Description:
It contains ten helices and 17 strands. By secondary structure, it is of the alpha/beta class.
Amino acid sequence: MQRTANPCMPVRFRPWPPDFTVMIETLVLTDFRNHTMCRIKTHNRSNVIIVGPNGAGKTAILEALSILSGDRGMRGAQMTDVARFNGGGGFSIFATTDDDTELSVVFNPGDTNRHGRIDGDAATLVDLSAQLPMVWITPREDRLFVDSASDRRAFFDRLVASFDANHSGRVARFTKLLSERAIALKSGRDMRWVDVLDDQIASVATTIAAARIQYAGEINYFLQNAAVSVSGMLEQMLIDGHSHGDIERTYREYLGNTREIIADKMTVDGVHKSDFGVFNKQLNLPAHLTSTGQQKTMLLELILAHAKLLHARTNRKPIILLDEAVAHLDTNARKKLFTELGETDAQIWATGIDADNFNDVPNAVFVACRDGEINNILIGEQE
Length: 383
């Protein structure tokens, strides 16, 4: 079999032209979650700190930003679920950036899809993603290293999709094809149809595995205290140096040999059973064996590395959304975090209950959020 260099090894990137950083200057939400109307001006600050009690609508502001980036949103909610009931079932998100670009997402009552616009012209979700790249973490990711492999796959596949707009679609298609295969086998359909499905499954699975391995190798270049690995049937063959063609043929043969005894999609091995691992190089331990605080620190390092990788690959610096990110961090860890965030030159939007936890954050604007009302107002600035 043809062999190549280990694709999990860290890679090097060629120099890029001068940096391109996106800064949001104004954000306006209408009938979004518990916000009837919310207007925030950042005063061109690199750190936007949203503070307030639980249930005040802090996370909703970050969720709106994530939807504005072309994603389904950091909560993955249905669009009908994020619209205020007294708003007629629709909502709008509008923002201006420091280069005078206007971006918006509108969801109208009765629609099945949201509609994007850039400077007043219709825009696809891919257009919005290219215009406003983002990366985020939420409290849901705090248990990333100890929860199920499916949660880790979903998290890392979302990061992979930052560079490959078709990756999420391939993962969804793979799952759909496996379901169709299971139904075909259980119903005793013509095996020629199963042949077609197996060919498609093998092709899509190999591409998914290759994208994951490439991402692991690239993000490891930017990680200092951690290392990302990928384990799985197809991923291991890539790590061992087998060619894409050989892997596709091997997996196709595997699928063909399992038809008589396997008819359930979750019984079949493949990229839907792969897992991502993170290793703490300082403690010489897998992430799931470290403390809660150490896991949070490692998760934040992953997000910082991802932001740097996005810059290296696209020459664009993403907006970073941190929902309750300072939880479990002591004073020194919080200060170190925002120092490292500052070195990325990205705009940071962070939420928290206590404004005192952000006293050391430089170049910040603070926004008070109470009960989802218009009183999301500027309460202070730091030089």
